[in-house]
């Protein structure tokens, strides 16, 4: 039996918005009472006023987080007790899944069925996964002489600041939150000013689930105000940052200007997707690149935005990709069936259209898309766009566009493809498509990226690390390795007398 279809428009009309921060488990306006407008990219409508957090609000949130950490109300609970509460938190998220999906879609523009099936579902799974993991991790005993015992234990760091972007607001927050909370830390989260609403709801749901007040605080606000104050704060022990490479550099500066807090940067990408002529199923490769590129309006850090195709199959490949692109034509994000939604805001829309102009001006061939559409709705929609005849030196191949724009670059030899793929400041993900097992392994080893996919691009799971090399950052979210970023190793020596 089919699940009943949801009338998302009707649900949206009854949705309540609350733009206040959550500090010490309670909703709070900004200390100075200031707000900024939260605008929906779907139709340009103001959804609500959001607290404009600044230094004083960050001070209050960090003080609340510090007190909660120091008095042990969370950190001193046993891992099994923390597990239970975090599992309840994940259940609460699933219990509010339709509300959260709507908030996410209204706030940042993605199709609501994707918010539901990807963002909400993955955020809940992330929290449940770390909850389940935390009481199964053992500490170490070092191989010392018989008269001594050395314990190597993982200690929670204390107060973790999390600063996240707008493209997967809830999911990026959960990647930071879940390991940090499971390990016993307190958290202050600064969501993007472009998509703050679900973060505050998450904090409320956490308190409902039994997370002690003050352990998880959310302060919305602008990057140069709330974000900077958090990253400079002397009582914050580490910053988990996901966002642009430009702001990631600032995180390192803030740490060096303040208390040398640990900084874990998850930054931009310009991922290479290399298709060799010896890969038989060109259709599947072409369909995969279109689906991966246009998902989330192309606003994915790991979007395969540079496609390198071996010259002998390039004409057929681009013909298929250009035929796939219109299937992702943007539609009403609340329809429940649109494959692509709205670009997050007017500024990002203008930036994406600017890159499309740059591609034309530099001589690339526009094969599909290239225009703003649905302008009559008041929303910010761009067609799925494909450029052929791109060179790896062009601006559209070098810079992260963060919109639905795919560049096809042709190559002759394996060495040439690898050299061009690696010739980028970024190194987040890459993929190689070849039926030759030696070539697939050779190229996968040669590609400088945090993740390499072979003959696929869709697989992803909480069980594997996610992060980049070069200017894509140094952080690794997800998997058990994420605990390394939110804990410190401590050595304790004991003398054993005869
Ligand atoms: P952004 O760098 O502009 O903003 C990210 C966050 O930093 C926001 O919360 C913002 O308010 C805050 N910020 C901005 N200026 C700041 C400052 N001076 N001090 C402190 N905080 C500041 O990025 P964005 O536009 O929100 O997100 C898009 C970027 O995120 C893309 O580059 C994308 O590739 C990257 N991203 C990376 C990953 C990953 O895992 N590697 C995942 C998602 C997105």
Characterize this entry briefly.
The chain has 498 residues and is α/β, with parallel strands linked by helices. Helix content is 39%, strand content 20%. The chain has helices at residues 8-13, 55-70, 79-95, 97-108, 112-134, 169-182, 197-209, 223-232, 245-257, 282-294, 311-324, 346-361, 395-398, 414-422, 437-446, 483-486, and strands at residues 21-23, 26-28, 35-39, 46-51, 140-141, 148-156, 159-163, 186-190, 216-218, 238-242, 262-266, 272-275, 306-310, 365-368, 372-373, 381-382, 385-388, 405-411, 426-427, 429-433, 451-454, 469-470, 487-495.
Give the tags.
498 residues; alpha/beta; 7-stranded mixed β-sheet; 5-stranded parallel β-sheet; 16 helices; 20% strand; binds nicotinamide-adenine-dinucleotide
Task: Give a verbal description of the structure.
With 498 residues, the chain is α/β, with parallel strands linked by helices. Helix content is 39%, strand content 20%. It is built from 16 helices and 23 strands. It is globular, with a radius of gyration of 23 Å. Nicotinamide-adenine-dinucleotide binds at residues 163-167, 172, 190, 192-193, 223-224, 227-228, 231, 242-244, 247, 250, 266-269, 301, 400, 402, 428, 466, 468, 472-473.
Q: How many helical elements? A: 16
Q: Give the biggest beta sheet.
A: 7 strands, mixed
Distance between the termini: 73 Å
List each distinct ligand once: nicotinamide-adenine-dinucleotide
Mean pLDDT: 97
Strand arrangement, largest sheet?
14-17-18-13-12-20-21
Which residue ranges are poorly predicted, with pLDDT under 50 across at least 5 consecutive positions? none
Overall shape: globular
Q: How much helical structure, as a percent, in the residues?
A: 25-40%
Number of β-strand runs: 23
Structure classification: alpha/beta
């Amino acid at each position: 039996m089919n699940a009943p279809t949801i009338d998302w428009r009707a649900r949206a009309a009854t949705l309540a918005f609350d733009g206040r921060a959550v500090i010490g488990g309670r909703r709070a306006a900004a200390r100075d009472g200031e707000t900024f407008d939260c605008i929906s990219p779907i139709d340009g409508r103001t959804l609500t006023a959001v607290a404009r957090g600044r230094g004083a609000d960050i001070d209050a949130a960090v003080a609340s987080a510090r007190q909660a950490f120091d008095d042990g109300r969370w950190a001193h609970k046993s891992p099994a007790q923390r597990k239970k509460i975090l599992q309840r938190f994940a259940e609460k998220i699933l219990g509010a899944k339709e509300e959260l999906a709507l908030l996410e879609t209204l706030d940042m523009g993605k199709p609501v069925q994707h918010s539901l099936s990807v963002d909400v579902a993955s955020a809940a799974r992330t929290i449940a996964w770390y909850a389940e993991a935390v009481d199964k991790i053992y500490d170490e005993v070092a191989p010392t002489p018989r008269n001594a015992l050395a314990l190597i234990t993982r200690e929670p760091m204390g107060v973790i600041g999390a600063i996240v972007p707008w493209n997967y607001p809830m999911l990026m927050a959960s990647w930071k939150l879940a390991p940090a909370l499971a390990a016993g830390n307190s958290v202050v989260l600064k969501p993007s000013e472009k998509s703050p609403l679900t973060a505050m709801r998450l904090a409320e749901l956490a308190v409902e689930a039994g997370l002690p007040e003050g352990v998880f605080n959310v302060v919305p606000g602008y990057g140069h105000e709330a974000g900077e104050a958090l990253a400079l704060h002397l009582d914050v022990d580490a910053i988990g940052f996901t966002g642009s490479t430009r702001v990631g550099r600032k995180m390192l500066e803030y740490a060096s200007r303040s208390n040398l807090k640990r900084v874990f940067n998850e930054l931009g990408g310009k991922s290479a997707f290399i298709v060799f002529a010896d890969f038989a199923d060109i259709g599947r490769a072409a369909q995969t690149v279109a689906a991966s590129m246009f998902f989330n309006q192309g606003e994915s850090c790991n979007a395969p935005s540079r496609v390198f195709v071996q010259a002998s199959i390039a004409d057929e490949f681009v013909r298929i990709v250009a035929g796939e692109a219109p299937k992702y034509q943007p539609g009403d994000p609340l329809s429940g069936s649109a494959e692509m939604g709205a670009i997050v805001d007017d500024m990002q829309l203008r930036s994406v259209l600017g890159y499309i102009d740059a591609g034309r001006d530099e001589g690339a061939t526009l094969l599909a898309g290239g225009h703003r559409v649905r302008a009559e709705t008041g929303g910010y929609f761009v067609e799925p766009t494909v450029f052929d005849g791109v060179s790896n030196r062009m601006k559209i191949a070098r810079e992260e566009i963060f919109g639905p724009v795919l560049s096809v670059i042709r190559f002759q030899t394996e060495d040439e493809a690898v050299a061009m793929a690696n010739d980028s400041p970024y190194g987040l993900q890459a993929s190689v498509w070849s039926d030759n097992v030696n070539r697939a392994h050779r190229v996968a080893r040669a590609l400088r990226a945090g993740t390499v996919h072979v003959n696929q691009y869709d697989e992803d799971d909480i069980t594997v690390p996610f992060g980049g090399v070069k200017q894509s950052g140094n952080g690794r979210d997800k998997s058990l390795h994420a605990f390394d970023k939110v804990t410190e190793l401590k050595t304790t020596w004991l003398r054993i007398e005869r």
